[in-house]
Amino acid sequence: MATKTSLSAVFLFSFIAILFAIPIQAQVPTNQTFKFINQGELGGGIVEYHATYRVIQTNSHTFYTHPFGLCFYNTTPDSYILAIRAGVPKDEVRWVWDANRNHPVREKATLSLGREGNLVLGEADGTVVWQTNTANKGVTGIKLLGNGNLVLHDKNGRFIWQSFDYPTDTLLLGQSVTTNGRNKLVSRKSDTDGSDGPYSIVLDHTGFTMYLNDTGQRLIYGGWTGTDYGSTVTFDFDIMDGFDDGIAYELVLNVNQDINAPPPPPPQSHRHLLQVRPIGNAHQINLNKLNYNATYTFLRLGSDGNLKAYTYYDKVRNMKWEESFAFFSSYFIRECALPSKCGSYGYCSRGMCVGCPSPKGLLGWSKGCAAPKLGQCKSGAKASYYKVADVEHFLSPYLDGGDGPMKVGECRAKCDKDCKCLGFFYREDTSKCVLAPLLGTLIKDVNTSVGYIKYSK
Ligand SMILES: *[C@@H]1O[C@H](CO)[C@@H](O)[C@H](O)[C@H]1NC(C)=O
Ligand SMILES: *[C@@H]1O[C@H](CO)[C@@H](O)[C@H](O)[C@H]1NC(C)=O
Ligand SMILES: *[C@@H]1O[C@H](CO)[C@@H](O)[C@H](O)[C@H]1NC(C)=O
Ligand SMILES: *[C@@H]1O[C@H](CO)[C@@H](O)[C@H](O)[C@H]1NC(C)=O
């Protein structure tokens, strides 16, 4: 009796399973499916990163909604990134979203959307390189929207997948980072290498923070730290009254727009907020005010680590991308605080690289200026240091001036002991100590802090 019951249960179970295995979801209509092969003519014009590109077009889709378009681009031969471009080639094209930045594809790679609704980027041999993982989820179509968002939608127009959920180094207007999904932007390595670089800006409970990670350790160098911004930060603009009866546009980061969420606490007055402009209220961070149309603007973490916005400038006949905000700039955070400002090493004063610190004193700065090469390090052995007066390290403001109070000798002993320490910065007024695992740009800071740079005599 027991056996019979379980047998029929198994039968019933299998029956239900089979029933559900049959796709009951709506599918992509046959005339909306496509397979685009990456071959043929390459486009020209003024193109960011000196890239060449192929416009993606099929019988059913243009993938172009002014001024955005879907393309393959390459900066090195036979190494293509599926991307969204902004702007037109006769003005200037910028790349605002990458699908496969760490895994470029080759000639004859394919981009396809099948009836099941999965958007797939594959190599010519069929190897899948990237996909939206949206098979059998009710996708009925694909669209590139007028805000630059590539979406896969269902029959009610609901987005099943959107490129806005996967920012790389760029936020378009209306695009967010969120702790419930992708919570960061990551820089590209360089103009020619689009893979993940060392800079990131990360949203978490400690703020919206810029990090440099090329020593295996995350070093804070900027952002809006010390404030819990909740779950979401969105790049956007507000329209305001401008000059001469015109309107002005305020570029902003909107914070946690979920109206049910409690407002974040007011920002702490860290010393690093050496910015001239007001930083906005608890729900908004003001970036910059523009007296031209900001409809097409994006915010990007560049390969140099600076966070900048660019706006398609409509005051001239040929539109092009105008820098409309820079985090490290004369009007926001002092430029010398950008670690890469003076290349790998330099002395920076009022936004200019004015010297190359050396054991013999300040020499003229050039791109070749580099931190001293160190011999073998023995932890604890007394190292040699040369002194650089009146400088602070980019980390100092974010570490509340450093550890301590302690004596300068203790700070030095800590650096002696730490083979990763390339120098230390000591504030005589507060007796605080910062160890530097990376030197970069030293910020001129009159008579408060002194740098001691490790070197081999
Ligand atoms: C696709 O087919 C449907 C009917 O099956 C038709 O209504 C629609 O216009 C077609 N779309 C295109 C782009 O041909
Ligand atoms: C820093 O970069 C290294 C090498 O790319 C990586 O292994 C490590 O996880 C990164 N650390 C953090 C905290 O992101
Ligand atoms: C700003 O530009 C957008 C896109 O070109 C346009 O639709 C809008 O009307 C412009 N706004 C103003 C106030 O000119
Ligand atoms: C720095 O030096 C100037 C004079 O050169 C002096 O007026 C100022 O008080 C000093 N600041 C500190 C923090 O010692």
Automatic annotation (TrEMBL):
One of its GO terms (cellular component) is plant-type cell wall. Keywords: Disulfide bond, Glycoprotein, Signal. CDD domains: B_lectin. Residues 48-165 form the Bulb-type lectin domain. InterPro entries: Bulb-type_lectin_dom, Bulb-type_lectin_dom_sf, SLSG/EP1. Residues 1-21 form the signal peptide. This is Bulb-type lectin domain-containing protein. It comes from Malus domestica (Apple).
